Amino acid sequence: MSADQKTTIPMSTSVYTDDSKLIPLSDLVSLVSDGDAIAVGGGLSSREPMAALRELLRAGKKRLHVIGSAHGIDIDMLCGGNAVAATWESYVGFEQDFGMAPNFRRACEDGSVEVHDSCCYTMVQQLRAAIAGLPFMPIRSIRGTDMMKLHPEFKTMECPFTGQELVLVPALKPDVAIIHVQYGDEQGNLCIEGPPVADLLFAQASKKVIATVEKIVSTERLQELGGVSIPYFYVTALSEVPFGAHPTSCYPFYAYDRAHTNLYYTAAKAHDTFVESYLNRYVLDCRDHAEYLNRIGGPAATERLTQWSQGTSSWLELYKA
To answer: Quick count: other Cβ atoms within 10 Å of Cβ 71?
Structure first.
């Protein structure tokens, strides 16, 4: 659902109360339909739901509308797999490490993907409107910018209390939020360690939430690990997928795999050979996530990424790879 559609926003999402929501990864992504608006969790090179997105490509999902804040390889890979119809993002790239996102940039330039440039706070307010059951939220941050020209659906009003001009942004309610977290229990309570980015808002605003987790633990253990970030009643289903964020990081489990990201980026820049050199080998021709992990080097590769916490020198060696 696009942000400019005129719809009635319900006060709350569905409530999911099954005692066990654990399902295989292939079944998890079957909850996403062609044309859905998907909110992609994590950000940049951290805790992105990469295993779930690779499974989406294997399942042949198409015409997706992707929503996020600042992202990288996740959105670029979906664009390279021709799965994206439109993007609602503030940034897609590889930060200072590699630069622009090649597949995303090409898709934007050739018109195969409809681009709705946004900014992080605008998206936050749009999600908050959906959560509150309101048709819009006011903001100030984009006044005086050309962002208004990019979004004719945004309106302005004079504040009845201060007389100041405010920008009104419509509610944004994704069809499915796809997130990856460190810990979860069988009922679907999720624990995010570190910055949640926009995941908490995605979970509250979306019609469905599907999650991959590094480790399933008991509810009691979840409380010991830091408590519940996203309560079970928001979560539709989840899968236990170790290294499910690879090649992005998922601390404290493993670091960002710079070597594999470099391999991906080199393939993406080549364009004409991207499908053959990367997408087939690491996504489409893999039966499942386990085969993907074998193709990236198996235990030798994954265990190396867990060594980041041994000290600064260990982390730096990983980054130099």
So the answer is: 28
